[in-house]
């Protein structure tokens, strides 16, 4: 039986396993942060965040879907906190659900902005422009005016496709991180914990099952509707999120907590480095699974719905 970090004090943190495990997590996180700082400088169009790939589907439906998913995620978090207290946020599952809720909150805001603001801003002007262009041209002055209107409309369209800014970038980051985190959470729960630990001391209630399923279900529904890209480089956000969770666990154990929510986080066992290496490696297939789903979306849906699904804009 290994002693807890609180019982051993500072001696717990001078084991040889600690720096090895720390470097196993820190090195990927350093590269992830460098990539994130570089990627934030790349342009991101607002239409990529709120538009859909479905030809006859109004972006309003994506807005409503994101608002509904946000409310459901918050409700699930509220119910589990009300039942077990804030202690549940020691678990990665609640971190994942909170991240999914943040994504849908940002997505709702951005979708609302993309749906309402540009259309209201240009609607009245475009109606006047169309009426003028429908009139017969009487002289060169009218022709020049029409050409000017076309140029103005071009600039209006460019403005409509303006850069998303920090809010849109944050939305994209949470989307990529939440996708990988949801796969990791659900695969570990349904493929490892439920088959091997289900018994008198571990039962799956409707609430627990919902939290370990609806996070991915809501994201997959959003993926089927949205126009967001899913680059392989987005893996950096997933890595940074995992590193943040490990840093949180280590910090609270240094201060007062004498219990690990997951046995593989224990540092006093000689097998700790292997567990941490495995924890780092498993992020790759989890992110890859979701990337494969997105790739399948762009290859399969155009064949199934050739007249409804637009592969690219």
UniProtKB/TrEMBL annotation:
The chain crosses the membrane at residues 12-36, 57-78, 90-116, 175-198, 204-225, 237-262, 274-293. Keywords: Membrane, Transmembrane, Transmembrane helix. One of its GO terms (cellular component) is membrane. This is Uncharacterized protein LOC111482095. It comes from Cucurbita maxima. The lineage of its organism: Eukaryota, Viridiplantae, Streptophyta, Embryophyta, Tracheophyta. The gene is LOC111482095.
């Amino acid at each position: 039986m290994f002693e807890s970090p609180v019982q051993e004090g500072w001696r717990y943190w001078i084991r040889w396993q600690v720096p090895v495990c720390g470097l196993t997590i820190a090195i990927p996180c350093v590269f992830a942060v460098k990539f994130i700082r570089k990627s934030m400088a790349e342009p991101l169009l607002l239409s990529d965040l709120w538009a859909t790939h479905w030809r006859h589907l109004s972006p309003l439906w994506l807005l409503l879907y994101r608002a509904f998913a946000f409310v459901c995620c918050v409700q699930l978090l509220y119910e589990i906190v009300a039942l077990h207290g804030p202690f549940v946020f020691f678990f990665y599952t609640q971190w994942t659900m909170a991240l999914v809720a943040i994504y849908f909150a940002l997505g709702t805001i951005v979708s609302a902005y993309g749906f309402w603001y540009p259309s209201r801003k240009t609607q009245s002007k475009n109606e006047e422009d169309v009426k003028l262009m429908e009139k017969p041209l009487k002289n060169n002055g009218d022709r020049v005016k029409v050409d000017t209107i076309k140029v103005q409309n071009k600039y209006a369209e460019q403005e409509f496709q303006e850069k998303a800014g920090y809010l849109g970038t944050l939305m994209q980051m949470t989307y990529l991180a939440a996708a990988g985190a949801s796969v990791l959470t659900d695969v570990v729960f349904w493929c490892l914990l439920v088959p091997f630990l289900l018994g008198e001391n571990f039962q799956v209630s409707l609430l627990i099952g919902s939290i370990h399923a609806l996070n991915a279900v809501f994201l997959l529904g959003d993926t089927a509707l949205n126009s967001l890209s899913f680059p392989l480089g987005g893996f950096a956000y997933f890595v940074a999120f995992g590193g943040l969770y490990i840093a949180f666990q280590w910090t609270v154990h240094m201060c007062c907590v004498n219990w690990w929510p997951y046995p593989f986080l224990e540092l006093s066992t000689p097998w700790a480095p292997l567990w941490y290496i495995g924890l780092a490696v498993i992020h790759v297939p989890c992110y890859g699974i979701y990337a494969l789903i997105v790739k399948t979306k762009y290859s399969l849906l155009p064949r199934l719905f050739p007249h409804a699904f637009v592969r690219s804009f």
